[in-house]
Every structure is written in structure tokens, then in C-alpha cells.
Design goal:
binds calcium ion; 8-stranded mixed beta barrel; binds ligand C2E; alpha/beta; 22 strands; 23 helices
Length: about 650
């Protein structure tokens, strides 16, 4: 009857229309939401958009987006919209916690419809969350990303199937957007990394430039002393030569080499050696005149360029440099005296270029090592004999292979009985090309070229063999053998000595190893272990050249020595030099107090011999008694001296 009244069909139609309209709005909303989300690439913004749109779509009070962390042990609420989200967003929870945990574990959405599928305990556990929480997982192409969670619908109705459908559709749409945003995020990170890499590269480049500058400096200056190095000094010498040539001037080069520095360096350690070198360089620099240049050629070698100079100025400069070393160097409270040898060459007389000038300065320096005044001017005549060390080194190597050395023996006399009680083995080397090369020349060469080990093996073998022959003939002579510092660094030395003594059946006490004083200058508590091993095996130790190394007797007291050899420089003229006599006398006394027997070497005349006897020296050695002799002549000497015994033991 009433036109308004709707038939059931009409009512149904109207409801359908309304549902359709509702659908259309929802779809429009969904489309708009996914479009908005897809248009964003910034990950945080995408998440915030999802949260906002999902909330509108579902009409919830609160919407949260939990996202799984990379290692899938936690999830973090990274975005949210609606009530109380500020408290929750940013919070991380363990994966098995709450509804989220359930969703990820079961890989299904959470909503009221799940209720029937839950078992008794789960239903009991979750019953309060049912209806007012809905959560659908966000699933990426490869793995779970997280979820979208709606909490409490506005109007407090429970979430229904339609909500689930809508949210699921939305979630599958936005998952793609999330993945895009994620890869964009990764890209951004990579880009940032690339940028910081770029920056790093820039920094590295700066460092490289600085290093190059350092290298440039290192290439020209010596790191330790800050003096010009070999390269720079070479360049300076060349320039100085050019200048001298242009201005028709002379020019001198000084080559300064420290004496026994290598030994000192080995004994004190390289750090202490470096300190000494630094101090030496400092003194040299202070000695230098402004017009001159000094550089370090390497090791303990320095070169000085003196422009517009002659022999006279060069000599004076050499004296000044030597004088600068006169005061001791103080290192950890100990005094060390350093000496140097200086070779002088003159441009243009001795050479017209760097290499010939330096080579000749080297020859002169070697000459200086053997002279007394510490410097020497190059002498072409001498150079004919003074061999190039380089050539010598090669020949020496061959000599070691051929065992081309001979050993001479110098008698050691008992000062009271006048009998020969021992012999010092001294090496001799004759080379057809170079003639007789003295040991002071070839021993350091052996040391520097790594040949000393094989040389010492020959020396020990030959001399021990020789001494054992004397023993077999009934002559109980003691054998003294010189050891270089390098030998004491050879861990095989004690074995070698023991093996040879056994092989030739020489009693251990019959062998005395002579070591120079510098060995004792280090910490006596930390005696080279090889030395300690040798002493333990029964071999005797003697300190050679005593008095030249400035070590104190109290130092020596701590060493397992049995003998002390006063250096010949004090002995030779002690009959004429009262100072030296005093030194010898007090050394003998002190050594005796320490229980050491004393040998005086360099006995060159009868007066000295008598004085030494009066003083109470135990053993005597020197040219006046006998020069070092070949083995057979030595034997004759022993037989004559010990049997005839014409010795006058009292003055
Ligand atoms: P050193 O150990 O001090 O040897 C003593 C040196 O003084 C020997 O010189 C000897 O010939 C010399 N001499 C002996 N009596 C007198 C004298 O009355 N007056 C003077 N002015 N000199 C005398 P040599 O044989 O030329 O040896 C020099 C140095 O070479 C030795 O000094 C030693 O350090 C070293 N040397 C010699 N042979 C060997 C060796 O086989 N091995 C090692 N490592 N070094 C050796
Ligand atoms: Ca000696
Ligand atoms: Ca000596």
C-alpha cells in the first residue's frame, strides 16, 4: 500500500547496493592506499604511510607494524598510527612473544575466525586478544617481512572476516612496496658506503701525498741522524766538483769511519748503538764549518765535503773531528770512548769524480786505521799495495774454500820459570796477487762478509790439531785462540769446540779463548749465552787487549774469566813511559786480587821484561821473546827454550 514500503526483493537489492557502494569505497581506499605506498621509496615514510592507510582502511584505534629483524630473533615495531603508538614504536620483542610470534610461527593471519582452530591451552591463553586484534603477515618474495596489526576497532566491534580480507589484500599489495623500499634502503646504504669510501679514498690520497714527501725526505736524509744520506751526499759531491771545476778551486773529501763501532754495536745492542751514532753525528755537526757539508754514508761511515780547501785545511778539519770524540759518551751511566779513522782525498789530484774520490778516501781511511794519528791522506803509491777491499773479499772467499790460511804461533812465557807454557795462534794469509795481508785487514773483512764462521772452524781445527801434536810429544802447552764477537753469536760454536777437543784428544783446560774487552762491556750478568756454555764445558776465557775498552775491573769480576791480557800499547814503552808503568802495575795487582792470571803482550825489550817480572806479571809475550812462528819453528823454539833453560828469573 505505501509506495515507501519496500518489497523484500527491493530491500535485498538496496542492501546489495549499499554493500557494493561500501566495497567501492573500500576498493578506492585500498587503491589509493597502495598507490600512495608504492609511490614512496623512503623506507620509514613507506612504513608510516602503510600504518596510516591501514588504520583508515580498518577503522582501528591503533595500528602497528612489527618488522622482523635481520637475524629473525626479534621484531621491532617500526611504525604505528593511532592511540598510544609513541610508546610502542621503536620497541623490540623476542620473536616468540605475543600475537606477532603466533603469526610468524604459524604463517597465518590472526583474527577472531582463528578461534576454532586453536587448541584448548592456546584458546585459554589468547582468548582476551581474540576479536580486538587482527594481524596479517607481510610476506616478501623470499621471506617474512613482518606484519600489520590492528588493535581495537573504533566503535569496539570485533574485527570481522571482511576486515581480514581487506587487510590481507592491502598487505599483499604493500609487501611489494616494502620490498622496493627495502632494496632502495640497501641501495642508499650502498650509496652512502660508496660516498664514505670516496671520502676515505680522498683521505688516503692525502696520506699518500704526505708519505711521498716523507719518502722523498727518507730518500735524501738519514733517518737516524737527520744528516744527508749517501744519495744526497753523492749529489752534493758532484755539485761541489762542478763548482770547483768552474772556479778552478780544490776540494777535499773526508771519509770518517768509527773504530770498533761494529763490535760495540753488537755488544751493547743496536738501540744503544743508534744512540751513540746519533750523539756522534751531533758532535760532528757542531764541529762542521758553515761552508762544509757532512753526510752519513751508512753504518758508522760519514763523509765531509770541504769546498775550496787544500791538504792543510783538510788535516785541520780531520783533527777537529777526531777531537770532538775525545770526551766520553755517556750511556746509562757508563762512559764509552769512541775513536775514528779518517781518510782524506783531494780534488782534482786524487780523482775527478765521486766514485774515484770516495774509493781513494776509503783506501786512505784504511791506512789511517793502521796509523797512529787517526787520519791519512790518500797516497797513490800506497794504493798499489793497499788493495781494494772489494777484490779482497772475493779472494778471501776463495781462500776460505781452499783453506789458504796459515797459522803462526807466538810463545807465551811463564815469567817466573822462563819456560814456554803456551802459544797464541795467529792467522796469516798470503795471496799471490795481494801478497801478505795482515789479519787486522782480513779479519774484519771476514766478519763483514759472513765468512768468519768457516774461517774460525779452520782456525780451531788446525790449531787444536797442532796443539794436540805437541801434547803427544810430551809438551803440555796451552793454546790461545782469538774469537771474534761474531763467533760468540754462533750457537754452534760450543759444540764445534767440544767436538774438535774430543777428536784431537786435547784436554779442555788446554784451550783458552781470547775475547776482546768490548764483549765484557755489556751487562756481565747477561753474558752471551754461548760464552757461558763454553766456560761450563771447561774452556778458559781470557780478556784480550785489556785497557783499550775502558771496562772496569769490577765489571770483569762478574765474568768467568781466568786470564787478562794487558794491551801491548801500555806494555811496549812502559820502560820509558811512567804513566803506562803505573797502569800496568795497578792492573796486575787488581787482576791478581780477582784471581786472574795476567799476560803482558808486546814485550819488545829486556827492560820491559824485567819490569814485568818485578811487578809480578804471570806470563809474557812479545817480539823480544819471539815473533809468531810457523808451527815447526815454534816447536824448535820451545825445545830450545824449555830444555836449555838459560832463563834468568831474577834481575
Ligand atoms: P791480538 O790478538 O792482540 O794479537 C797480538 C798481535 O800483536 C799479533 O798481531 C802479534 O803479531 C802482535 N805482537 C805480538 N808481540 C808483539 C810485540 O812485541 N810488539 C808488537 N808491536 N806487536 C806484537 P797480528 O798477528 O798482526 O794480529 C793482529 C790482530 O788480528 C790480533 O790481535 C787479533 O785481534 C787478530 N787476529 C790475528 N789472528 C787471528 C785469528 O786467528 N782469529 C781472530 N779472530 N783474530 C785474529
Ligand atoms: Ca789475542
Ligand atoms: Ca792483544
Amino acid at each position: 500500500m505505501t509506495a515507501n514500503r519496500q518489497s523484500p526483493q527491493e530491500q535485498e537489492l538496496a542492501q546489495l547496493r549499499q554493500a557494493l557502494r561500501q566495497r567501492e569505497t573500500e576498493i578506492a581506499l585500498l587503491k589509493e592506499a597502495t598507490d600512495a605506498v608504492s609511490s614512496q621509496l623512503d623506507f620509514d615514510k613507506v612504513m608510516q604511510l602503510i600504518a596510516d592507510r591501514a588504520r583508515t582502511l580498518l577503522n582501528t584505534k591503533t595500528l602497528l607494524i612489527p618488522v622482523l629483524n635481520e637475524d629473525c630473533t626479534d621484531y621491532t615495531y617500526i611504525a604505528g598510527a593511532g592511540e598510544d603508538v609513541d610508546e610502542v614504536v621503536g620497541e623490540s620483542l623476542p620473536i616468540n612473544f605475543g600475537v606477532c610470534g603466533w603469526v610468524w610461527k604459524n604463517k597465518r593471519p590472526w583474527w577472531r575466525g582463528m578461534l576454532d582452530e586453536l587448541d584448548e591451552t592456546e584458546r585459554e591463553q589468547w582468548k582476551d586478544e581474540i576479536g580486538n586484534i587482527i594481524m596479517v603477515p607481510l610476506i616478501g618474495k623470499k621471506h617474512f617481512l613482518g606484519g600489520v596489526t590492528g588493535i581495537n576497532k573504533i566503535g569496539d566491534e570485533p574485527f570481522n572476516e571482511r576486515d581480514l580480507e581487506l587487510l590481507s589484500m592491502f598487505a599483499s599489495q604493500v609487501s611489494i612496496a616494502i620490498e622496493n623500499a627495502l632494496s632502495f634502503k640497501e641501495l642508499t646504504v650502498a650509496k652512502k658506503e660508496a660516498e664514505s669510501y670516496q671520502k676515505e679514498l680522498g683521505k688516503l690520497n692525502e696520506i699518500l701525498v704526505a708519505t711521498n714527501k716523507d719518502l722523498e725526505y727518507l730518500a735524501l736524509y738519514d733517518d737516524l741522524t737527520s744528516l744527508p744520506n749517501r744519495n744526497l751526499i753523492k749529489d752534493r759531491i758532484r755539485q761541489s766538483i762542478k763548482q770547483a771545476e768552474a772556479e778552478e778551486q780544490k776540494l777535499t773529501i773526508l771519509l770518517i769511519d768509527l773504530d770498533n763501532f761494529k763490535e760495540l754495536n753488537d755488544t751493547l745492542g743496536h738501540d744503544a748503538g743508534d744512540v751513540l751514532l746519533y750523539e756522534v753525528a751531533k758532535r760532528f755537526r757542531e764541529t762542521l764549518r758553515p761552508s762544509d757539508t757532512i753526510g752519513r754514508l751508512g753504518g758508522d761511515e760519514f763523509a765531509v765535503i770541504i769546498p775550496d780547501s787544500d791538504i792543510r785545511t783538510a788535516k785541520q778539519a780531520a783533527k777537529d773531528f777526531l777531537q770532538s770524540l775525545e770526551n766520553p759518551f755517556i750511556l746509562q751511566g757508563n762512559h764509552y770512548f769512541l775513536d775514528a779513522s779518517i781518510g782524506i782525498t783531494l780534488y782534482p789530484e786524487h780523482g775527478a769524480d765521486f766514485s774515484s774520490l770516495l774509493k781513494h778516501a776509503d783506501v786512505a781511511m784504511y791506512q789511517a786505521k793502521q796509523d797512529t794519528n787517526g787520519f791519512s791522506i790518500y797516497n797513490p803509491e800506497q794504493d798499489e799495495h793497499s788493495q781494494s777491499r772489494l777484490a779482497l773479499s772475493g779472494t778471501l772467499r776463495q781462500a776460505c774454500q781452499d783453506e789458504a790460511f796459515e797459522f803462526y804461533y807466538q810463545p807465551k812465557l811463564d815469567a817466573r820459570t822462563g819456560k814456554v807454557v803456551g802459544a797464541e795462534a795467529l792467522a796469516r794469509w798470503f795471496d799471490p796477487e795481494f801478497g801478505n795481508v795482515p789479519p787486522v785487514v782480513f779479519i774484519p773483512l771476514l766478519e763483514n762478509s759472513g765468512l768468519i764462521k768457516s774461517f774460525t772452524e779452520i782456525l780451531l781445527r788446525e790449531s787444536i790439531k797442532q796443539c794436540s801434536l805437541w801434547h803427544q810429544a810430551g809438551l803440555n802447552l796451552n793454546l790461545s785462540v782469538n774469537m771474534s764477537m761474531h763467533n760468540l753469536r754462533d750457537p754452534n760454536l760450543p759444540q764445534l769446540v767440544a767436538r774438535l777437543l774430543n777428536q784431537y784428544r786435547l784436554p779442555r783446560r788446554s784451550l783458552t779463548l781470547e775475547i776482546t774487552e768490548t764483549v765484557a762491556m755489556g751487562d756481565p750478568q747477561h753474558l752471551p749465552p754461548i760464552l757461558a756454555q763454553l766456560v761450563l764445558s771447561g774452556v778458559e776465557l781470557s780478556i784480550d787487549d785489556f785497557g783499550t775498552g775502558y771496562s772496569s775491573l769490577s765489571y770483569l769480576k762478574k765474568m768467568p774469566l781466568s786470564e787478562l791480557k794487558i794491551d801491548k800499547s801500555f806494555v811496549i814503552d812502559m820502560d820509558k813511559d811512567p804513566d803506562n808503568e803505573v797502569i800496568v802495575r795497578s792492573t796486575v795487582e787488581l787482576a791478581h786480587n780477582l784471581g786472574l792470571s795476567v799476560v803482558a803482550e808486546g814485550v819488545e825489550n829486556k827492560e820491559v821484561m824485567q819490569k814485568l817480572q818485578q811487578i809480578g806479571t804471570d806470563m809474557l809475550q812479545g817480539f823480544d821473546i819471539s815473533r809468531p812462528l810457523p808451527a815447526d819453528e815454534f816447536l824448535k823454539f820451545v825445545l830450545a827454550t824449555n830444555q836449555v833453560s838459560t832463563w834468568v828469573s831474577h834481575s
